[in-house]
Amino acid sequence: MKNILYLFLTLASFKISAQASAEEYLNSAVSKFYLNDMKGAIVEYTRAIKIDPNYVEAYRKRGLAKETLKDFSGAIVDYTKAIEIDPNYAPAYRDRGLAKGKLKDHMGVVEDYTRAIEIDPNYANAYFNRGISKFYLGDLIGACKDARKAQALGDDASILIKKVCN
């Protein structure tokens, strides 16, 4: 099945000509991403960005590919660029927060998830992840408050609640 998908996606990528649109490169990159070809995906996302330097989703998805390759600093650069282009783009704050967490930048995580929550106050997972970083920063009251809010919004925060709210 994977071979058939690969063949289909390979044939689809042949349609990309020298005059390809940014969206066509993005679609090709997404195909490579799902086939676990992160380096190839990054090349295609970069081509999309060269055509459209304000293509927020291309920066974000290129950041995801870099993060998959454990290039957390490179991912943060791409997420930051997406945020510069569209400051209300909550997914980029979420993704940048995750990358910062992998680098143990818990203050940065709290900042990014706070911003994501300002954009989307019902973003349960943002409360949960912010709560984890607050825990690591020693803010147990804040961690408990975020865990309870995440739980109220439908996220299973029971492990964090058990750890910090007793």
What does this structure look like?
The chain has 10 helices and no strands. With 166 residues, it is mostly helical. It has one domain (2-164): Serine Threonine Protein Phosphatase 5, Tetratricopeptide repeat, CATH 1.25.40.10. Helix 4 (56-68) packs parallel to helix 6 (90-102) and helix 6 (90-102) runs antiparallel to helix 7. The longest helix is centred in the N-terminal third of the chain and has 14 residues, at 38-51. Mean pLDDT is 90; it is low at 5-12 and 14-18.
Q: What do the pLDDT scores average to?
A: 90
Give the CATH architecture. Answer: Alpha Horseshoe
Question: β content, as a range?
Answer: under 5%
The total strand number stands at 0
Q: Which fold name corresponds to the CATH topology?
A: Serine Threonine Protein Phosphatase 5, Tetratricopeptide repeat
Largest sheet composition = none
Fourth-level CATH superfamily: Tetratricopeptide repeat domain
Radius of gyration: 18 Å
Overall structural domain count:
1
H/E topology pattern: HHHHHHHHHH
Q: Determine the fraction of residues in helical runs and give it as a percent range.
A: over 70%
Helix/strand-derived category reads mainly alpha
Distinct helical segment count: 10
User: How far is the N terminus from the C terminus?
Assistant: 49 Å
Q: Which residues form runs of ≥5 with pLDDT under 50?
A: 5-12, 14-18
| Apparent shape | elongated
Which CATH class is shown?
Mainly Alpha
